[in-house]
Design brief:
single chain, mainly alpha, flat
């Protein structure tokens, strides 16, 4: 068990030394790209337009019901923007 822990620590040290961003955290995806090319956005648009049955299977509701739910609950669950990034709107419509 100790050997596994030592190997993990060595791997972490190696990755930290050979990082593209030394002594920095990875930058956030730009806000406009995040809204256009984020995985959630792509998935939801694809399911809604191309495959309504999969949309229903994924969310257990029709697209119209999802839109109504977002409209009713959205203002209550909406997050605030921070200095680091803008908050994503509920439902990403």
């Amino acid at each position: 068990m100790r050997r596994i822990h030592e190997n993990g620590a060595q791997n972490f040290h190696f990755l930290a030394q050979n990082s593209d961003y030394p002594n920095q955290t990875r930058p956030w995806l730009a806000d406009e790209k995040r809204r256009l090319y984020g995985r959630y956005t792509i998935l939801m648009e694809e399911l809604r337009v191309e495959d309504p049955k999969s949309f229903f299977n994924y969310l257990r509701m029709e697209p119209a019901m999802f839109d109504e739910l977002v409209q009713r609950v959205g203002p209550r669950i909406e997050k605030l923007n921070t200095n680091m990034r803008k908050a994503l709107p509920p439902g990403l419509n």
